[in-house]
């Protein structure tokens, strides 16, 4: 069975909905933690449930290289392989090809992309068909079409050709998609250009995907304004009865801005990567636990937070773990940071229901940025 | 209140007992996981409970350097600092001084030991009094007397002088020990020499400690035979109504041999260190998950094991995590390896109760070594 999106309430362009999947229902807007290599770094599936993760994301490119999609398929699919019975979304591998191997030569051809493995330099060739075939075998709940992610600085001409190629790739991928229990999303590209975003959205929607994502907004050289514009350019052309996913975005303010512009789903490595570097989200901004001022701070990371880390541990202890390079520190901060973003989406849903999302944004940003 | 040891059953020299502590009762013989820096690497306190850890060990030397015993005391002691409400034993720092800084100059004087921090080379001076004072502040359930751990290869003359100094250090430490809720153990040294082990045991017991440990058996240059002999030389002189702890030993066969010779408590970093290197204990010997033969092995680490890792994950998945350098792999293997040793002690208790411990040893070793 495919996923089904149910629109429950709107407030301006912001929407509250429910995503019905074969692995349970998910309230949207939602933040999806990233489990690149079939594990959300440092965490167990039980801990993901405890922070109310609705969907998690896993990376096709990484699983293709290690352990290989055939081994995952033999294990009974990704859910069984990693012991996660909630919904899983797999990306298409495109972003990884363009980001992980960005300093190496790659050939983008009509047929696909030739590039070198970031692990061992081996020459690899990924095509739209192969990306979908791998995802079919991984048996995620939601697969993504294979796309190109050009940098925002690419010329208009390049971007236009790229958008057209991504449309042809989407069509080719859709043709070979053969897993009846897996939904397939189309990806809107077009960089900072209004006409290209519109063109990409309109043409992608014509192919009738199970959901739509907006890609190419998490590049290093992208400004926040570019990102917000990209969403605004695309959203009017996306159908109301399908979920909308903003790829690679996990900054709290960006999530709020995305939701206000009509986005339902977000993902990012941000919360777990910050955790490994000793940083924690709080309502009053990010804090760096390595800071000496936390040495004797016997209060939780954030007063009022309901996560496991905040219920049982102090900043002083977590600081000690981080300074001593103990992975339990990264684990506690990962739990907290993911829970922080999920709570944010819970509050956004509530604000939409109560029709005060603009006030929520104002209050949140004022406190978060300390202005 | 001090700990109290209750002897319940013997079989030869092997004993089943119960250790009553301020943080719960513990069945002995028991294996104690090591939480060097106030955390058992990769694991949560809940996971330690789940594998039925009775007591955990933490390292005075490491906590002295980071975060410092005053911060732990301000947090309310080690239990509260690390959120572990079971019993905790702290070592004295002696072994770390002699092992972690073994390639650096250190001056062993009557007053104490001058050496350089393994973290930053800072000059440090640890004395018997300071070791006990630090442990008093850490507020562990069981503290250890400060001792010297000379290598087994030291001359008889050196060893004799060292044993005498360790006795004087034990007395000095006992004098300053002032935490009424903390028990204090004496340490028997003497290397491979029967007369020195006897002398050390007899003189240490005269000081009337709450328990006794046998040290200096986990040095790199110690043979298994030396270790077994060291136990045999000391045990006859230790009182029946006090617990006996063999320091730094965690090999399954050594645990069995120790129990047969009258040991009640063991500790070792072995199970968690092996885990981080991708190794798992099984009844049929240690396995290395990096081995390619486990790529498609969709069975648990060990059939019949009741640990979280074995209940939910396959060798193929854990292998993938280890190869991909994901810490959840080390976490699953740590859970399994600790549970393996704790189950071993559970079975040893049962074998003692049923008076068939020699048969148990024979069966275990035959299968473990594949003979």
Structure, briefly:
The structure is a homodimer of 371-residue chains. Chain A is α/β, with parallel strands linked by helices.
First CA to last CA of chain A: what distance? 48 Å
Helix content of chain A: 40-55%
Strand percentage of chain A, roughly? 15-25%
Label the structural class of chain A: alpha/beta
Topology of this protein?
2 copies of one chain form a homodimer.
Chain A: E1 4-11, E2 14-21, E3 24-28, E4 30-33, H1 45-50, E5 56-58, H2 60-65, H3 69-74, H4 78-82, E6 88-90, H5 94-99, E7 107-108, E8 113-116, E9 123-126, H6 128-138, E10 142-144, H7 156-176, E11 183-188, H8 194-206, E12 211-214, H9 224-234, E13 244-246, H10 252-260, E14 265-268, H11 270-276, E15 279-280, E16 287-288, H12 308-312, H13 315-323, H14 327-353, H15 357-369
Parallel strand pairs in A: 4-14, 5-6, 10-11, 11-12, 12-13, 13-14
Antiparallel strand pairs in A: 1-2, 2-3, 7-8, 8-9, 15-16
């Amino acid at each position: 069975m495919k996923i089904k999106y149910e629109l429950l309430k709107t407030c301006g362009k912001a929407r509250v909905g429910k995503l019905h999947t074969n692995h349970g229902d998910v309230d949207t807007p939602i933040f999806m933690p990233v489990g690149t290599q079939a594990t959300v770094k440092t965490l167990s599936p039980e801990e993901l449930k405890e922070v109310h993760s609705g969907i998690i994301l896993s990376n096709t490119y990484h699983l293709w290289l290690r352990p290989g999609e055939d081994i995952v398929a033999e294990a009974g699919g990704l859910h069984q392989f990693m012991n996660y019975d909630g919904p899983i979304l797999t990306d298409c591998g495109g972003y990884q090809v363009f980001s992980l191997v960005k300093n190496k030569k790659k050939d983008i051809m009509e047929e696909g992309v030739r590039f070198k493995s970031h692990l061992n330099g081996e020459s690899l060739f990924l095509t739209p068909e192969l990306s979908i075939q791998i995802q079919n075998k991984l048996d995620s709940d939601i697969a993504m079409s294979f796309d190109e992610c050009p940098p925002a600085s690419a010329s208009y001409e390049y971007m236009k050709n790229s958008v057209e190629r991504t449309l042809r790739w989407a069509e080719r991928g859709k043709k070979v998609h053969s897993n009846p229990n897996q939904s397939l999303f189309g990806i809107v590209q077009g960089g900072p250009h209004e006409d290209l975003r519109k063109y990409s959205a309109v043409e992608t929607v014509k192919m009738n995907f199970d959901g739509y994502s907006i890609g190419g907004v998490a590049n290093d050289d992208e400004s926040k304004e570019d990102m917000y514009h990209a969403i605004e350019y695309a959203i009017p052309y996306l159908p109301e009865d399908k979920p909308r996913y903003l790829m690679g975005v996990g900054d709290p303010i960006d999530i709020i801005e995305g939701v206000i512009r009509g986005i339902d789903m977000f993902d990012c490595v941000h919360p777990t990567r910050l955790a490994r570097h000793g940083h924690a989200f709080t309502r009053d901004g990010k804090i760096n636990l390595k800071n000496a001022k936390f040495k004797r701070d016997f209060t939780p990371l954030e007063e009022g937070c309901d996560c496991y880390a905040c219920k049982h541990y102090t900043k002083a202890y977590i600081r000690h773990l981080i300074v001593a390079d103990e992975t339990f520190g990264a684990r506690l901060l990962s739990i907290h940071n993911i829970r922080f973003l999920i709570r944010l989406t819970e509050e956004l849903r509530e604000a939409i229901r109560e029709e005060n999302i603009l006030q929520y944004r104002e209050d949140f940003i004022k406190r978060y940025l300390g202005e």
